[in-house]
Amino acid sequence: MSARPDTPLLDRVNKPEDLKHLSDAELARLADELRAETISAVSETGGHLGAGLGVVELTVALHAVFDTPKDKLIWDVSHQCYPHKILTGRRDRIRTLRMKDGLSGFTKRSESVFDPFGAAHSSTSISAALGFSVARDLGGQCDGGLGDAIAVIGDGSISAGMAYEAMNNAGHLGKRLFVILNDNDMSIAPPVGAMSSYLSRLYAGEPFQELKAAAKGAVSLLPEPFREGAKRAKDMLKGMTVGGTLFEALGFSYLGPIDGHDMEQLLPVLRTVQERATGPMLLHVVTQKGKGYGPAEAARDKGHATAKFDVPTGKQQKAPSNAPSYTSVFGQTLTEMAAEDDKIVAVTAAMPDGTGLNLFAERYPSRCFDVAIAEQHGVTFCAGLAAGGMKPFCTMYSTFLQRGYDQVVHDVAIQRLPVRFAIDRAGLVGADGATHAGSFDIAYMANLPGMVVMAAADEAELKHMVATAVAHDEGPIAFRYPRGEGVGVELPERGEVLEIGKGRMIQEGKRVALLSFGTRLEEVRKAAEALAAKGITPTIADARFAKPLDRDMILSLAANHEALITIEEGAVGGFGSHVAQLLAEEGVFDGGLKYRSMVLPDIFIDQASPRDMYEVAAMNAEQIETKVLDTLSIAQIGNKSA
């Protein structure tokens, strides 16, 4: 473990109120200590490092100037909130970040009154801040009181349509609120698109230096763009800023860009807007992701998400991999198939590395599209590509695809367009917790007419499903796979095209049939081994498809066993519900079949290791074994055979 940093000033801060007693010079020193403490903590826990390092000075300045928790500080996405958590009474627990029973890696309402709005997905902060502002003016009440609302949103997050919907509404309502555009020119992937280019132009020229000179220590030199009739001041603002007209057209007073790492700029500017703003205010702050820590600054992703690491070197302590990750198998397979089929294109929403498309993008840059944080647009863009004769792979995390669901229904499914949905991070994901868990895609995809829904049981099956999706032109098709490593099976040289709606038998047995959908198959096999020691040999089948179901296989399993148990890594309403519907309609239950469905419980499961999360969900091998014994009404007496 690296030595803990020396933090004499930070040691005196237990809550934001303590910052009010520090001089500006002390606040600048405090920021340095806060950065060191953040690096030290994340080196022990792993997590999102770069984003937090980029907003250290901004975090200190906001808490020093505004009156939190009465003033609502809302961090968009909130993976940059670790310094905020340290300053708001949670320093003693900061080394439990993202661990079981520890601090969340994101803001969380149930964790602290200083987290007024939970987040982990992007572009929600301005909408929430506007909600708080309107609630304040209508006499609403909440924990901590209601004062100003401050949304801190990154240049990547502001590329999403929801941010503009919120700004348009805020400009119309004219309520006092603050939007701080944290412009580090770097979301998870380098931000793309016209918006990013616009922001780059904003701070490319002289005015940045002019504002820097005006802001340094001299509040009186700042313009007053907020007073009715102060035309000269307004003209001065226009001269000092470049092209803030987009934000002004939406009804915001725009100020910036300013240096987000210079406390001599941040503090007077924030104090001025806090004292004088009457309507919606956008402050454009330029920062550097990973600021102040060499290894993060040098990394391609600026230390976006790291494992535990050595502080002096930045070397991450990643466990050696025994098998390729599902994500890499997908990316490699799609790239191989694209070599043979020039109609294959790939679309992702700001996650080319996270979805394994970086290899595809290198090989076929003209056929890989990063649409920025815009899942709705991404899905309909894929629909247009499919209608135009291409074979688009809409590659998104399960939890992010939720944001484009209306488009999946309206633009893809109703028109029966052959969009291929590659759904990464299916099931429970570990340290990111409930916000990133892929719990609902089986249910929300399988209830759509004409949608084919597959789940890979292992990495070889994933290769087959990619090949199946390439070959499927009759309508939309989806396949899901989890985060992390495969199970270590041998990979075929080529994926084979599966027969749509046909599962596979894994093991013949008696009395009970275990019908698995997805990667719980490995746990089902372990449970079967334990049951064999008790004299029970279950039949095991891999469904492969939740839609269309393999009717013949399912009805055969039901006819030849006294019990049938389905297992899936998804919420109720998914695969097991479709199986139950089939069995009910076919009158199978009339004959006395014992049917059980193992699904994720009706709760949001907090972060822990994936195994611990599946323990909470009661879906590991031990619980599958128990479910079989209970269903067959076999009492368990210690470890004795039944």
TrEMBL record:
Pathway: Metabolic intermediate biosynthesis; 1-deoxy-D-xylulose 5-phosphate biosynthesis; 1-deoxy-D-xylulose 5-phosphate from D-glyceraldehyde 3-phosphate and pyruvate: step 1/1. GO terms for molecular function: 1-deoxy-D-xylulose-5-phosphate synthase activity; magnesium ion binding; thiamine pyrophosphate binding. It holds the Pfam family Transketolase_C. Thiamine diphosphate binds at H79, A120, H121, S122, G156, S157, N184, Y293, E375. Its cofactor is thiamine diphosphate; Mg(2+). Binds 1 thiamine pyrophosphate per subunit. Mg(2+) binds at D155, N184. It catalyses: D-glyceraldehyde 3-phosphate + pyruvate + H(+) = 1-deoxy-D-xylulose 5-phosphate + CO2. It comes from the Bacteria. PANTHER family: 1-D-DEOXYXYLULOSE 5-PHOSPHATE SYNTHASE-RELATED, 1-DEOXY-D-XYLULOSE-5-PHOSPHATE SYNTHASE, CHLOROPLASTIC. This is 1-deoxy-D-xylulose-5-phosphate synthase. It comes from Cognatishimia activa.
